[in-house]
Write a sequence for this structure.
């Protein structure tokens, strides 16, 4: 499939997800077909635990997802390094291949571009959830090695108590008034969110999805101007004013806005140019110490119940279109979504474009920008 066709089909998904208004509501479906999951539930309970990694509770409402899963099935959930990046998750699998202890992750949630690597390096096992057919083909491995889970677009998250004039586009960030204020939500050498931010900056500065060098050059200008802060931004650093302007997935920014509840006041801005959409994906480690718990976790996340938990967190779940057709999305969740027109310019990179950009950014970040993000 050409990348143009891929982007077109993904844009159709986004457009439907954002523009359809659903008026009816039915109860969420169970985690999966009861007859199919009973043996799986039993096997998972015998394992007794699930180990996850890189799941901040405010990311896509993962806190509620984890607590609901624990209560539903009576399993412990061992949470490793909530602030890890996608590359860190993959390294955790590699480093614990022969380790069945608590440092070995059962499941991962990584950027879309990491899908081919997972398969090539035989780091994940295939598993098709019971709702498999309702996951769009463009965002799942045909053999079930990985599957998209949710998507959003990159936005500016701004602490309005610190920043008087909220930036509206990438070029604004170069202004002297933002000195020591602009940050990324990850290390560009390891974080999919940070890498996609640089891709977005490239689009806004004459680059393309196939040439992200202008994005690196933009961040060099930011750094040379003293505007860039080499700190991995999160809710606490934003609230304290340490990183008051951050490139962040819209759902994370909206979650921060809700959680902080005006203390400080947060603005979430979809930039006027360089609007990029990104899909994340789920996979089960090939070396998972608790493979049945991992499969049960996937069944939960890809059930209507799990998908609605993500939607509640501002993320568009990958099965959104199917749920719209069946009228199972509460009206208040649709009403909470940002206006569709803000997303009209969003583009979806292909896996190949993401991988090429990821490699270039990892290799050239220090050489071009020279900011050691920690």
């Amino acid at each position: 499939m050409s990348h143009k066709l891929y982007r077109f089909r993904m844009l159709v998904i986004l457009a439907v997800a954002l523009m359809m208004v659903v008026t009816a509501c039915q109860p969420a479906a169970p985690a999966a077909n009861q007859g199919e999951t009973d043996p799986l539930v039993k096997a998972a309970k015998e394992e007794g635990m699930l180990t996850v990694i890189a799941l901040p509770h405010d990311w896509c409402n993962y806190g509620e997802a984890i607590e609901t899963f624990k209560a539903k099935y009576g399993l412990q959930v061992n949470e490793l390094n909530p602030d890890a990046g996608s590359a860190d998750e993959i390294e955790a699998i590699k480093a614990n291949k022969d380790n069945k202890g608590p440092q070995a992750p059962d499941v991962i949630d990584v950027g879309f571009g990491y899908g081919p690597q997972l398969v090539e390096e035989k780091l994940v096992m295939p598993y098709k959830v019971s709702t498999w057919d309702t996951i769009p083909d463009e965002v799942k491995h045909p053999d079930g090695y990985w599957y998209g889970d949710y998507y959003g677009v990159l936005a500016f998250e701004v602490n309005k108590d610190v920043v008087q004039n909220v930036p509206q586009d990438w070029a604004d960030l170069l202004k002297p008034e933002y000195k020591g204020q602009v940050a990324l939500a990850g290390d560009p050498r390891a974080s999919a969110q940070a890498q996609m931010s640089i891709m977005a900056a490239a689009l806004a500065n004459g680059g393309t999805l196939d040439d992200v060098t202008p994005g690196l050059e933009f961040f060099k200008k930011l750094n040379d101007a003293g505007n860039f802060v080499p700190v991995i931004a999160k809710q606490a650093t934003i609230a304290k004013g340490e990183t008051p302007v951050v490139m962040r997935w819209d759902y994370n920014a909206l979650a921060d806005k809700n959680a902080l509840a005006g203390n400080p006041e947060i603005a979430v801005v979809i930039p006027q140019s360089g609007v990029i959409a990104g899909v994340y994906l789920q996979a089960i480690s090939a070396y998972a110490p608790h493979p049945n718990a991992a499969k049960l976790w996937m069944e939960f996340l890809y059930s209507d119940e799990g998908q609605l938990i993500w939607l509640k967190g501002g993320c568009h779940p990958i099965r959104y279109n199917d749920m719209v057709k069946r009228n199972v999305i509460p009206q208040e969740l649709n009403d909470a979504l940002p206006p569709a027109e803000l997303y009209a310019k969003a583009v979806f990179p292909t896996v190949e474009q993401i991988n090429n950009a990821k490699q270039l950014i990892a290799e050239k970040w220090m050489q071009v920008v020279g900011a050691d993000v920690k």
Q: What stands out?
A: The beta strands are 49-53, 76-80, 107-111, 124-125, 147-159, 182-184, 245-249, 266-269, 277-285, 316-317. Residues 111 and 280 are 5 Å apart (CA to CA). Residues 1-36 have pLDDT under 50 and may be disordered. The first strand starts at residue 49 and ends at 53.
